[in-house]
Amino acid sequence: MKNEPTLFLNPIPALSGPDASVTSHWLEPGSCCAAPGKCEQLHQNFAEIAELQKALALSQQQLADARRQLESLHADRAELNQQLREVGENYRQALHAAHHDALTGLANRTLLQDRLRQAMALANRQQSHLALLFIDLDDFKAVNDTLGHAAGDRLLSDVANRLQACIRNCDTACRYGGDEFLVLLTDIENSNQLSAVIDKVYETLIAPYASAIGYLTLDVSIGTAIYRRGKQSWDDLIRQADQAMYRTKAAKA
After folding, report:
1. How far is it, in rounded angstroms, from Cα 101 to Cα 156?
2. Which of 48, 106, 223, 252 gives 134 a disulfide partner, CB atoms 3.0 to 4.6 angstroms apart?
3. Which residue in 179, 185, 142, 135 sits closest to 157, CA to CA?
4. C-beta separation of 241 from 223 below 8 A
């Protein structure tokens, strides 16, 4: 009788059904476990599978960590973009406030002076003409004294809106201070065109204004200075327009 090898196996729960044949196969003499070389290979395969499972679990964990980091980076990027948009908007608002009148929204002195210098340089290069209007609201103080400063501010805003509406996009309307306004007119072709613009501005500004007590009327004084290429500085031009405005006002007295 042939001696069978003795097997030392861990207890295996009894199985029924199709699995029972599998169990009996492993316990049968002559199965792979009966051959030491095959058993060692099987255990080695199981060990490699276990290592692969560990590596897979580690990779999955690393992938999950990387995904969380990527989501965090996306969130940080979105927050940074929002901050950049806010900074850009704050900068634009600050830049606008630095160059525009807070009450009327027109250009302020700083912006007017900058555009006037640029327009004069362009006129010198292109041999073109420009003019500056200096506008003063006659007896505006009476509006403040009678109706209050809030009514005066509304009137100034209405004047600014009318002034902006009756000039070209290439021209610049400026609130110079108080009830004084400047208008820079570029590319003036001839004196007739300039006179037509002055008449239009004057008629637009003296039309009645609505107020809490009815309609208000006011008169305006307009002085004009024409740029003579290479013979005036920007502040010379403003001073000459101012002087012309006072001559117009004096002629009404």
Report:
1. 11
2. 223
3. 179
4. yes
pLDDT of residue 176: 96
What is the rounded distance in angstroms from the CA atom of residue 100 to the CA atom of residue 136?
Answer: 19
Q: How far apart are CA 248 and CA 131, in angstroms?
A: 17
List pLDDT tens digits, range 114-133: 999 999 999 999 999 999 99
Q: Say which residues have a Cβ less than 8 Å from residue 237's Cβ, sequence separation at least 6.
A: 116, 120, 132, 225, 227
Question: Any alpha helices (H) in 100-177, and if so which ranges?
Answer: 109-126, 140-147, 149-165
For the entire predicted model, the pTM comes to 0.70
Give the residue numbers annotated as catalytic, written as ranges. 179
In Å, the largest CA–CA distance within the chain is 148
User: Taking Cα atoms as reference points, which of 168, 170, 173 lies closest to residue 156?
Assistant: 173
Torsion, CA 82, CA 87, CA 92, CA 96, rounded to 10:
130
Distance between CA atoms of 178 and 101, rounded to whole angstroms?
11
